Amino acid sequence: MKELKIFAIVVILSGVLYWGIEPYAHTKLHPHTANAEYNFSKEDTDYAKHFLEQKKTALETAKASGNKASIDAATKDVEVAQKILDDYTAFWNDINSIDLTKGDATKGADTFVAAGCTGCHGIEAAGMPAGMDAETASQSFGVVPPDLSTAGKIYDDKFLAALIKNPTMALKLTHKFNDEHPFPMTAFMGAGGDINAETADIVAYLKKVSADYEKTNNKITEEKVFADACQRCHDIKYDKKYAFSNKVSLAAYMGSNPPDLSMMIRSKGDEYLHKFINDTQKMLPGTAMPRVGLNKAAEDDVVAYIQKVGDKKKAERESTGLYVMIYFFILGIFAWLWKRKVWSELH
Q: Tell me, what's the pLDDT at 212?
């Protein structure tokens, strides 16, 4: 009976630690953030509104303190937050006004060339290699521009339109790039016609290229999605894959070299990775990493690939853990029976 009481105390204390203290500590180290949102317009405006409310709350606190310097600083923060909300609202209103269903892939192919996109981007699936090799592109731009063979399949349609019209806003890098320090990819200024219609045409063209690529290659694999979406900057050495961009140029462009992703699934978990890929600024404000812009299916592929490479023994480990618990349960029963037998003979 005494042993059962000790066991009960251990179970209770373990439960308090596991379901009480650990989750509380986790909320302090990793404050809750909204789940990944694949409506980027809503994601950006909701986040901007939340940011504005935070600054307004801080202003009220500053006013209550009566400190003029604090009030002035908080007032300026509110003005900046309001401008961010206004800018993203106007930006996404413009993007949402584009009717992507009317895009003409044939016209888009002509516009893609006429607008000079081939100067930086290759489309191997359409027989258009990149204008520069990876080393030259790295030195010119800091990072290798992506080949767009799969772009129409793996990226969200509206994100592609947003990226074409204003890459800095779409990638959420306005804190890093501006008129004095422009982003390497210039905003699309049109090729002589209606700029929104031309944007829709380019998106339609990229979607057709990706569809043709799938017909030829059967399926865009998880590994291919990772290569096209992430490998320009990130290594994943567990699978012997290395960033396409020159490390020195990339570090200068990003501020530091992006991390190897081999163990990221274990250190962060799949939920964090989904949120981070979906909206980097929400998870790590001020980071130089752009929003990736993947649709949900492609994002699932990237996380699944990182999981497969970084934690390929997960299923085996979890099943082994269950067997170990069953073993100790059975062992505990035999130990208890043996103890009863021994002590019964002594008494």
A: 92
